[in-house]
Write a structure and sequence with these properties.
The chain has helices at about 15-30, 80-95, 105-115, 130-140, 185-190, 210-215, and strands spanning about 40-45, 55-60, 70-75, 115, 125, 170-175, 180-185, 195-200, 200-205, 205. By secondary structure, it is α+β, with helices and mostly antiparallel strands. It folds into two domains: about 15-150; about 170-215, no CATH class. The protein is elongated, with a radius of gyration of 28 Å.
Amino acid sequence: MKNGASKSNQHDSRESWLRAAAKELTEYFKICGLVIPENIRFAIAFPSTGRRGARIGECWHSSTSEDGNYEIIIRADIADPVEVLGVLVHELIHAVLPIDAGHGKIYKDAAIKVGLEGKMRHAMPSQLLRPRLVALAETLGALPHARLNIDRGRDNKPADQPKKQKARLLKAECSGEGCGYTVRITAKWVDDIGAPLCPKHGAMTIDRGEADKGEAGGEGV
């Protein structure tokens, strides 16, 4: 790895930054007896467990990809460059091992060689590895990413996610002449059981107009 590098931003995308980091780590992994594959895509997003999950990164094996690439994803609400590199190292170890290695003995042996410590499922850089990652972060320049503050979203959700609609009550009216008997009922009960009954005149008329209008729109992309 280079020393005394500029802190200026040398990368215009997060994937470019992560790809450069993996390239810089290649020689170090070789010294540890591990070969980082070249066919890896990188992303800062949310893992398959979603934003509510605890997973901070994940690696998808090349056998799961239509074009044979590995996919490494680092959680979007992590932005400290050294922390991001720590997650990257953890996931790169998955990429160099067989798909069924998991966090078992094979993974543990490789992780310890590279310099991770702690419970393997959450293994992060030791005090020996961390200075190397600090230097690497300096070499790469600024990470073009800022922490995604989920709690600032609209109801803790993305701007284009539609609000969950409350159950609409349908209006049921008695059709008997001069009878003003009116009730509200959910569509579920009308569909499952039938229209409610007026105590005097029997089956009531259901007005579905408001619900039909409200359900006509699609979701945002």
